[in-house]
Amino acid sequence: MPATSPTPATQPAIGAHVDSADPVSAARERGAGLSQFFLGDPQSYKGPVVDYAGGPEALKADAEAAGVDLYVHAPYLINVATTNNRIRIPSRKLLQQFIDAAASVGAKGLIVHGGHVDKEDEVDKGFDNWRKAIEATDLRVPLLLENTAGGDNAMARTLERIARVWDAIGSAQGAEQVGFCLDTCHAHAGGIGLATAVEQIRAITGRIDLVHCNDSRDEFGSGADRHTNLGEGLIDPDELAGAVRAAKAPVVIETRGGLEGQRADLDWLRARL
Q: Which are the contacts of 210, defined by CB distance < 8 A and separation ≥ 6?
């Protein structure tokens, strides 16, 4: 798959995960060039909902006019890897619905977690289910696969699993529309050292399209997906900032503290970039 990350001379856009009601104003309030948001309840199988006044067309137009890039995060419940038909089939349906919704608001991509298979299942089935899902989905916007923090049967926790799922996706028709989202907290928790994570992942994928820059409340290799504000967790600050610089991709912080907390984190990051 061709790399699409910005050139070294390009300053990547930086922003935050915000409420979906007005992601354009949220970006302005943070002095940011992008916003990421959910379209509906991330813990539900219900379809996407665009809360923005005027609907998706207005959001797309207002974001373009403001120079704000939009990214949509898919619901956490989507798991196209599983062999459980009661989960996989609704997940594929939801994936298409959220791709369509992301396209309607002009999003630069839809971020989705790698999912997992059940303990009794062969992980190879999960990789092949990813291939099938890509072939069954009309990828009207880039689909950005995000590495995850825990789970022995997760598709995208370790470098070895990321390589295998990427190989499976690469054999699917439509693979050119699949990119990669590196989450720093997930990498740390999953046992991928940030000092070399960008180089190692690029060796597998050839690309990093987005970075989720988050500190971690837990130890390296813990498997715990617990974000914390930048500089307040257990990730070495120099390694955290270094990974973001090396990725040369747009950056989203997914941290707490509302507007003020995210402003402080964005300032922390800008000072180091």
A: 71, 109, 111, 144, 179, 180, 181, 182, 249, 250, 251, 252
Instruction: Provide the residue ranges of all domains of the chain, joining segments of one domain with +.
Output: 14-255
Each residue's pLDDT, cut to its tens digit, for the chain (273 residues) gives: 444 444 344 678 999 999 999 999 999 999 999 999 999 999 999 999 999 999 999 999 999 999 999 999 999 999 999 999 999 999 999 999 999 999 999 999 999 999 999 988 889 999 999 999 999 999 999 999 999 998 889 999 999 999 999 999 999 999 999 999 999 999 999 999 999 999 999 999 999 999 999 999 999 989 999 999 999 999 999 999 999 999 999 999 999 999 999 999 999 999 998
Architecture, CATH, for domain 14-255 = Alpha-Beta Barrel (3.20)
Taking the model in full, what pTM does it have? 0.94
